[in-house]
Design a protein that fits this description.
The structure is a single chain. With about 210 residues, this protein is mainly α. It has 10 helices and no strands. The protein is globular and about 50 Å long.
């Protein structure tokens, strides 16, 4: 028992006083924000809409649709979207595993298709990182028609705010998610594949079966 207590005391990380106060303030402000929203717009009445935003930025549907796009079309954008999603998954998973911040106490654990070992942690918001990264991709890196820019930006911001309202994250988790999403966009821009490079990669997925002529 003594060895167990000693092991626990040495492995438990000490949080600096300044950071601890910041996190406590974040918890307080996040809860007050949710309560204020709930008072004006009862969350139970808008929860289905918030859940729709959650699903719209879930990583698995985006991965499935992107991979399907790789096989069904010759559009190089799908290579770059896939690259962005992989960058996002790696950065968020590593950050969550390192920070290990718990989700808000009032969060209702009704998310679908999650990896509990990582998704039980709160910092940063993976939905926020992904939404911002995709918004930058579709407005700057590979712009959609200008008419769609505002809807894309509004969607990304709505997804980010909804994470706090749903109780999935604290405010600081989402703010960090937005910043990380912007950093991911910069990384993606440096790794961006042009048409020729993307075509070379896509040929590995959609090329002719070498055994078909045998």
């Amino acid at each position: 028992h003594f060895y167990k207590r000693m092991t626990e005391s040495t492995t438990k990380r000490e949080i600096p006083t300044g950071l601890k106060k910041l996190l406590e303030l974040d918890v307080k402000l996040s809860k007050e924000f949710v309560e204020a929203v709930n008072k004006k717009y009862p969350i139970d009445t808008i929860r289905s809409h918030l859940k729709s935003l959650e699903v719209s930025c879930h990583g698995i549907p985006w991965l499935v649709l992107t991979i399907a796009g790789l096989y069904l079309t010759n559009n190089s954008i799908f290579i770059n979207i896939l690259l962005g999603l992989i960058i996002d998954i790696v950065i968020v998973a590593i950050t969550k595993a390192f920070t290990r911040r718990r989700r808000p106490a009032y969060n209702v654990d009704d998310q679908h298709a999650t990896f509990k070992s990582v998704d039980k942690f709160s910092f940063p918001s993976g939905h926020a990182t992904r939404a911002i990264m995709l918004a930058v991709l579709f407005t700057f890196l590979s712009p959609l028609p200008a008419l769609l820019w505002i809807p894309v930006i509004v969607w990304s911001l709505a997804v980010s705010v909804s994470r706090v309202v749903l109780g999935r994250h604290h405010i600081l988790d989402v703010v960090a998610g937005v910043v990380i999403g912007l950093v991911e966009s910069i990384i993606l821009s440096m790794m961006w594949r042009n048409e020729e490079q993307a075509a070379s990669i896509m040929s590995m997925f959609g090329g002719e079966d070498p055994w078909s002529s045998a």
